[in-house]
Automatic annotation (TrEMBL):
UniProt cofactor(s): FAD
Protein family per UniProt: Belongs to the class-III pyridine nucleotide-disulfide oxidoreductase family.
Protein name: FAD-dependent oxidoreductase
Ranges where the Rhodanese domain occurs: 472-557
Gene3D superfamilies assigned: FAD/NAD(P)-binding domain, Rhodanese-like domain
């Protein structure tokens, strides 16, 4: 009988154990988990904190007993693997009752990640919490419940400081606000959700402020100091700001939990993640590894490092099981890093590298920004989807991001599929997507990205970008083709306002104002200015259209 030993019993580890059993009814499959819980829903933790998942037990998807009954797995909680001997093919397991050594034929390492501890003084204060595990959630929940219950009528809301505005930090902010706390969010980067392109992040910042969240961007938390004996603290920031807090949640990212692998002599990559091949096999032929602890190759840029997301971990677990039992495997494809988060009424989602990552990798790209309705404009309840996509000069899609109140999730999933398939702007333009007025448009936002990219890449409509505003003002005529009322609400200084509907009759005026310079056209979103740019080009002027229009320009300036 083959013995498969799995270290870590949550996303990647349990996917592997379950798949291995479905493929091999006779193997002895042991899952060793250091904590008291296996197969819990990490991703659901913030939603129990918010109260949306009311039943804590709903997060605990399985128990050792249910896994023994359904899958004949030998699941051992409270069992920490402290050493791997690859020559003897054994692991050392530490339990409350002492240590033992267990042999394996195939070993899977799925130990996940460990939280990065930022250099903040006083982080050990009991009011400072993490949000990674079930015990973390229980402790935080208890603190929040006590603060809410102890609040006397008329007293200010209890205060929370969340350090780190990544995916989990944002979910924590939303949950704590929902529970009635006054929340401050501290982020070292200059915008929330650092993977998001800077022109989309202000939308999230606005949503957070509208829900009363205090934003502290571009600053670090430096110290947590006690302020009385009821658990109240002061969080001091690098700009000298002092925030009073009753609870602090720190989530500044994770690093691969690869110490065990390193000590066992397995190869690690430069980021400290475990190196694996396309079948999840490590440098030792009897050891596989998956999840947050391993290195992956990122699509498009080819960057190598960990991508701590549940989807890749689960799929890798399945693949590792296939490989361990000698089943046909589907080799790991480069990881897109597709991710999504809800921030109150907004959804933000990304797939593939952002613009900064493309620039870092030296990959030439054109950026397309659009703001279409999520379904037909004439159907009630249309919401704008703000989409940014990048394309290679040959038309290949490189990455995409979106923010909006509705319809963002399906656009990003279509774009992630297109990215995986290596599609181009022409392909996006030709995608046939489901349409009836309550759901989309005959020209879906994804088609629109393709159309705009086609126009830009084949030179039909050249474009300029928000970060070129200073040069546009200095060296070109900025032509605003919105209606005068829109112009009056805010415009680029010295811009000439000629509504696009009047442009054909006022070409001489534009020509005179341009005085031989190029014309940098814009409207609110880029649609009317596209028409105007075509009119100007046909009239022999050197014209270009602002990518993303005033909506994007005003977000970044
Ligand atoms: P894990 O699922 O973390 O499991 C590793 C397990 O190994 C742990 O239980 C640990 O105790 C155990 N272990 C470690 N070392 C040892 C040892 N030596 N011996 C025994 N056991 C050990 N991803 C998304 O894609 N979408 C989301 O919405 C999302 N939300 C998240 C929300 C939160 C609050 C958190 C914490 C994570 C979220 N993630 C999300 C990330 C996702 O949960 C992880 O990427 C995924 O769980 C990684 O799977 P894994 O198997 O590598 O590690």
């Amino acid at each position: 009988v083959r013995r498969i030993v799995v270290v870590g019993g949550v996303a990647g580890g349990m996917s592997a154990a379950a798949r291995a059993r479905r493929l091999d009814e006779h193997a002895h499959i042991v899952v060793l988990e250091q904590s008291a819980y296996v197969s819990f829903a990490s991703c659901g933790l913030p939603y129990h904190l918010s109260g949306e998942i009311a039943d804590r037990e709903a997060l605990l998807l399985h128990t050792p007993q249910s896994l023994a009954a359904a899958l004949a797995l030998d699941v051992r909680t409270g069992s920490r693997v402290t050493a791997v001997d690859t020559a003897a093919r054994t692991v050392t397991v530490a339990t409350a009752d002492g240590e033992y050594v267990l042999g394996y034929d195939a070993l899977l390492l799925a130990p996940g990640a460990v939280a990065v501890r930022p250099p903040v003084e006083g982080l050990d204060h009991p009011s400072v919490h993490a949000l990674r595990t079930v015990p973390d959630l229980d402790a935080l929940n208890e603190r929040v419940a006590r603060l809410v219950a102890d609040r006397t009528a008329g007293a200010p809301a209890p205060a929370a400081v969340v350090v780190g505005a990544g995916l989990i930090g944002l979910e924590a902010v939303e949950a704590l606000t929902t529970r009635g706390l006054q929340v401050h969010l501290v982020e070292l980067a200059d915008h929330v959700l650092p993977p998001l392109d800077p022109e989309l992040a202000p939308l999230l910042a606005g949503e957070l402020r509208d829900h009363g969240v205090g934003l502290h961007l571009g600053v670090a938390a430096r110290a947590v100091t006690p302020r009385g004996d009821d658990g109240a603290v002061t969080v001091t920031l690098s700009d000298g700001t002092e925030l009073a807090a009753d609870v602090v949640v720190v989530n500044v990212g994770v690093r691969p939990a690869s110490d065990l692998a390193r000590e066992a002599g397995l190869a690690l990559g430069p980021t400290g993640a475990i190196r694996v091949d396309a079948d999840q096999r490590t440098s030792d032929p009897h050891v596989w590894a998956v999840g947050d602890a391993v290195e992956v190759t990122q699509a498009v840029t080819g960057a190598v490092g960990p991508v701590p997301l549940a989807g890749p971990a689960n799929r890798q677990g399945r693949r590792a099981a296939d490989s361990m039992v000698g089943h046909r495997t589907t080799p790991q494809a480069p990881v897109l890093g597709t991710a999504i988060v809800r921030v109150f009424g907004l959804t933000a989602a990304v797939t593939g590298p952002n613009q900064a990552a493309l620039t870092r990798a030296g990959i030439a790209h054109e950026v397309v920004r659009i703001h279409p309705g999520h379904h037909a404009g004439y159907f009630p309840g249309t919401e704008q989807v703000h989409l940014v996509a990048t394309f290679a000069p040959d038309g290949r899609l490189l990455g995409a991001q979106g923010v909006g109140r509705a319809g963002v999730d399906k656009r990003i999933d279509v774009l992630a599929t297109a990215l995986r398939a290596g599609m181009t702007a022409d392909d996006l333009a030709e995608l046939e997507l489901a349409y009836a007025p309550p759901y989309g448009s005959a020209k879906d936002p994804v088609n629109m990205l393709g159309f705009v990219a086609q126009n830009v890449l084949d030179g039909t409509t050249p474009q300029w970008h928000p970060d070129e505003l200073d040069a546009a003002r200095a060296d070109t005529l900025v032509l605003d083709v919105r209606q005068p009322a829109e112009f009056a609400r805010g415009h680029v200084p010295e811009a000439l306002n000629v509504p696009h509907t009047e442009l054909r009759g006022r070409l001489d005026e534009v020509r005179a104002a341009a005085a031989g310079r190029p014309v940098s056209v814009h409207c609110a979103s880029g649609v009317r200015s596209h028409i105007a740019t075509r009119v100007l080009l046909a009239a022999g002027l050197d014209a270009r259209n602002l990518s993303g229009g005033w909506l994007t320009l005003s977000a970044v300036h």
